[in-house]
Amino acid sequence: MKTQLPKDRAPSIRDVARLAGVSHQTVSRVLNNHPSIRETTRARVTAVMEELQYRPNRAARMLVTRHSRTIGVLSSTSAQYGPASAIAAIEDAAREAGYYVNTANLSTVDQESISGALGHLMDQAIEGLVVIAPQVRVFDVLARMSIDVPYVSLQSTGHAGQRALSVDQIAGARMATRHLIELGHREIIHLAGPQDWIEAEARMRGFLGEIDSAELPTNPPVLGDWTANFGFRAGRELLRTREFSAVFAANDEMALGLLHAFRDAGLDIPRDVSVVGFDDIPDAQHWWPPLTTVRQDFREIGRRAVEVLLGEVSGNPVAARLQLLPELVVRGSTGRARSLAGSVTQA
Amino acid sequence: MKTQLPKDRAPSIRDVARLAGVSHQTVSRVLNNHPSIRETTRARVTAVMEELQYRPNRAARMLVTRHSRTIGVLSSTSAQYGPASAIAAIEDAAREAGYYVNTANLSTVDQESISGALGHLMDQAIEGLVVIAPQVRVFDVLARMSIDVPYVSLQSTGHAGQRALSVDQIAGARMATRHLIELGHREIIHLAGPQDWIEAEARMRGFLGEIDSAELPTNPPVLGDWTANFGFRAGRELLRTREFSAVFAANDEMALGLLHAFRDAGLDIPRDVSVVGFDDIPDAQHWWPPLTTVRQDFREIGRRAVEVLLGEVSGNPVAARLQLLPELVVRGSTGRARSLAGSVTQA
DNA sequence: CAGCGCGTTGTGAACGGTCACAATTGTGAT
DNA sequence: ATCACAATTGTGACCGTTCACAACGCGCTG
Description:
Strand content of chain A: 5-15%
CATH class of the largest domain in chain A: Alpha Beta
Oligomer: homodimer
Helix content of chain A: 40-55%
Strand order of the largest sheet of chain A: 2-1-3-4-5-11
Largest sheet of chain A: 6 strands, parallel
Order of helices and strands of chain A: HHHHEHEHEHEEHEHEHEHEEHEE
CATH architecture of the largest domain in chain A: 3-Layer(aba) Sandwich
Mean pLDDT of chain A: 89
Low-confidence stretches of chain A: 340-347
Structural class of chain A: alpha/beta
């Protein structure tokens, strides 16, 4: 009982029109549910569409409307938990809003790689861009290429000219640091992330700010690369060269490496050293000891990014609160300070 | 010194043509580097393109050629390390080949969600599909929707009618199990993944096969959900209800949960219990104790998936070996068997 | 010198939607 | 019944590219 079609191509709007006995424009109107269509006509057209399994051709629509309904995501290290779950959330939210998502990964952060990825996205005629690789340099390139689409950046704490949407990294870092101070630690070392990452720099600022408020001696931070491997090596190095009773790592992975190194050296955590991480990835509660860390909700950030971006795209900006507050989660890796190699002179 | 353009729109092929003093078709030929173009003409056209910052309109091209140069990725749990790094690798490889990637996530695995995601991808006119959510049901829906594009599935060990590309899960599971047997363990429990996951089922088959070859008693596996939280609860439950000296977990996350539970119960690993995982995620080497596990190279799988898929798409299938061999990585979470609560009767 | 063939370039029509505008139909008031 | 006006539908052009085909120029052959 199927209606035969002349062409072998996918059915077009005109095929539907012919079979429904209307003009192609009417079909188009049904498609975009235009208000003034008689209910009976709409039903007839819809029926034919159903029968033909009609699917609008996105390319054609895109050609004339100049809307791709696609947003781009620029990301690095997208295999890590944080970025990965943010991306997943972005995709979900975008799809829900009828948008498509295209992701480009940055293998390296040289300018060529960045502009290559950006070019790839621009070819797609993206209408908006989410930047999850908040290295400073990315924004330079973004500016230089005169990208004309609106963009949001995750976790960049107001660095760019555009809207930035983020968990308040500075507040989070202060919470972590204050927690250690309140436990009586005075010699606290910060294992920071790469300093061309805006969020790494923000966490460092938060750390230094809090240390400063407490009028504690300033220990030079160690600059890491986010990985557990680095944390491990840094931990060994620290034991050889520094005096401290606590470390605040800029992310959970590096904290894990620290735990490993300290344990290998025969130290008891948190009796001998306290460790705080940042992110609260799902594994962290199962580590040994379970990690005290600062939780940020990556999925929520992703969702909001899309919300803000689509608001921007459609011309009526969302007045959403752009800063989310992170939350300190105290577990077994932190405890009261006692003397290890140095520290503890206080009241 | 810039040449003024009449329109405010992005420059088109005809704008370039006019300025270069050629026909639009010639410009098109340059674009697709057609052989018979005089070198001088090509140079002239290229120069104008450069000056105008011309970018071909993908929608227009797509409309007429019916090629989207886009491949789709259907994935679930894309925040986990394995899928996430495979996706990243897919994107890299695709971009290198001049293709675009569109990902759709499965929040739930009901049929509606699956066909919704698939529909989203089909709207994009994808030319090929990579399935990373190898639940059996996905393939049912795939068949029912009569998806007409070629697809590869990751880690599905030859379940589907189409090409499957994977690490040999069965071999990996056998390696892990054999390792435990060789250490003298006789009461080995398998903490399996959800059985609607093809790879979970394959790992279970490998485990059972190896147990069978060694003529050991068969312990009923425990069915989990891949998460560390589940592993933790399962670990506590096992200690209450079962006798065993080793557990083979179907992935590293669940193994982590086990370690946590066993440690909480005051057990020493590996003296009292041995634990093996699967995947070798980067963190696993830093856990306590460092996890013995089966390594599979997710990036490589992703790369190959694209290779195979693009071969299929372009009509000349790649004759690549589709099975990769995983590798056993022995670390601190496994050791020789001794009596715990049961077991150890052997020679 | 006509004619052939090849390399190179141009012409006009698609592709499948939307847009602007015109045309038709229906409705209520006069 | 008539008219104004709104609701509904139709017509043709256009978006930017590729495709099929035609045409041009030029050297070479006979």
